[in-house]
């Protein structure tokens, strides 16, 4: 597994994104789609929720990934806990690039009054291969597009997601 590939992708994203969208996440409305993956008008990943709460595959996948790697600190449904902030709130103002940067590199807020450490996930394929999935899930939560809990129904897993699993997770 080539960890540096992730680091470069995220760095490039941070540079491009930092300049263009420093103001925040922007409008989450779907502007384009590619093989079941949706993007907003700035090209950042976004969610799509159709009638009766049917979520796109990546939002569903992000729900699962979030609840396997993040919820112990950030609480179920992105609602926060005494250990770490509510990401359903953070993503109201945080850009995609800033999100990717914190998750990849971690962040520390340690001083006399605080001992808060966000671990760096840059070498964890279970997180890095699904960074966009986790992002769109939390973006949907931040915009109240889905309630807490497991989405009752989702679009089929796109072929592109199957291929990405194989190449990113190294199971080819
Ligand atoms: C061991 C506990 C822990 C785990 C697990 C964890 N985090 Fe964090 N995270 C934190 C803490 C503590 C902070 C606040 C750090 C600070 O105060 O600077 C934080 C901050 C963040 C922030 C910045 C929020 C803001 O408002 O600025 C993001 C984004 C984030 N985490 C995403 C994630 C994601 C995504 C996962 C799962 C892949 C995850 N975290 C897993 C503890 C954790």
Throw out a few tags for this protein:
alpha+beta; three-stranded antiparallel β-sheet; 44% helix; binds heme C
The number of distinct structural domains comes to 1
Strand order of the largest sheet: 1-2-3
Kindly state the number of beta strands: 8
How much of the sequence lies in strands comes to 5-15%
Uncertain stretches of 5 or more adjacent residues:
13-21
First-to-last CA distance: 12 Å
Following the backbone from N to C, one meets helices and strands in this order, namely HEEEEEHHHHEEHHEH
Given the structure, what is the number of helices? 8
Q: What multimeric state do the chains show?
A: single chain
Categorize the overall geometry. Answer: globular
Mean pLDDT: 89
What radius of gyration results from the CA coordinates? Answer: 16 Å
Small-molecule binders: heme C
Structural class given helices, strands, pairing? Answer: alpha+beta
Task: Specify the helix fraction band.
Answer: 40-55%
- Outline the biggest β-sheet: 3 strands, antiparallel
